[in-house]
Amino acid sequence: MTARLYDAAMLTPLENLPMWRAESGAAAPRRVVAADDTTSADTAYRLACEGTGLLWQGDFHNARQLLQALARRTERKPKKSKKADTDVTPVQAFNLHRQALGQRARILAMVIVPLNGDYSIPLRRAPDLKPACTEAWGPATGEACMVSLRELLGVVGAHEWRKKGVEIAALGDAPNNRIYPHYGVFSPVRGEYVDLVANTPIKDKSLAFDIGVGTGVLSAVLAKRGVQHIVATDQDPRALACARENLQRLQRIDKVALVQTDLFPEGQAPLVVCNPPWVPARPSSPIEHAVYDEGSRMLRGFLSGLREHLAPNGEGWLILSDLAEHLGLRTREELLCWISEAGLLLLGRHDIKPRHGKASDETDPLHAARAKEVTSLWRLGSAA
Known about the structure:
Layout lengths: L1 E3 L1 E2 L4 E2 L5 E3 L9 E5 L5 H9 L2 E5 L3 H15 L15 H19 L2 E5 L14 H8 L7 E4 H16 L1 E2 L10 E2 L11 H9 L8 E4 L5 H8 L5 E5 L2 H13 L6 E5 L8 E6 L22 H13 E12 L1 H4 L5 H10 L2 E9 L14 H4 L4 E8 L2
């Protein structure tokens, strides 16, 4: 998203300021002031909390240090409420956690850096981030812009992930077992769901549908397991490009047809696999669509359309965490009801406990729910 940066007090655009760029769709700050190496962290924090953007004109590395100082201030523990923690429901804890994360993100987004039309940064000691910006945003247009330093560092982080890749044990031995996520495509760092797909028996390996292909990791696992042909779908062009690159690198692209569509391709398959977002909440940025599924839209769409796309005696594999149940955002009864209403039967279920660090981090605000989390592969078939 691009928009003119302006100072609300002037009520007119500041003609000397370039366009505002925000992949998340966040609006430009209503007021922008100049900031440099002489700006104290306390002053910057006060302005940022007020919603004032800080247009950086000093040393690039000092801007990064300022951002870190602001981050430390956002992490300060608030005074304890008189209400005991035990009185907070899981849903309230989740909403408070997301609210805190959103406020933190808004504050940190107030540190703004300029970019030239070729993605160079006109600041002292600024690194060359042209390759990272080109990967994330496409070729430079020649028009200068402004971007949140936090978002720019996210672009750099995505560039590093794309260079390094994520090792996937289910794809074989290193070094030929890596998935390279693109900017805006969720990285397969939660390996337990991949293990479920890698270890569940497949009855018919002639054809499979992979609904919501993402990086292509599940298509690659299915191909490695001997599935002869896979039709993989996604709505996001970035995800399809990422999946294509990964499958080509793994020499599996000859077994996979990539289709841009919402949920199902045409026809039927003996195996239909879907790993939808696990938490029914509203995403606040494009990358969060891989985690949050408002109103369980994708989950319910998959269940309601599965029977029509299952070949006779076929199986639908739904990979889903029960974290939403422990947070009070969805009940097991609701899920079972949706399965039944879709004309589906539960053929079996395979469970696995999470291995990520937050599952054992007692300081995490959602630790009580995460400690109980189980990820399951639900094997579904058509009811008679």
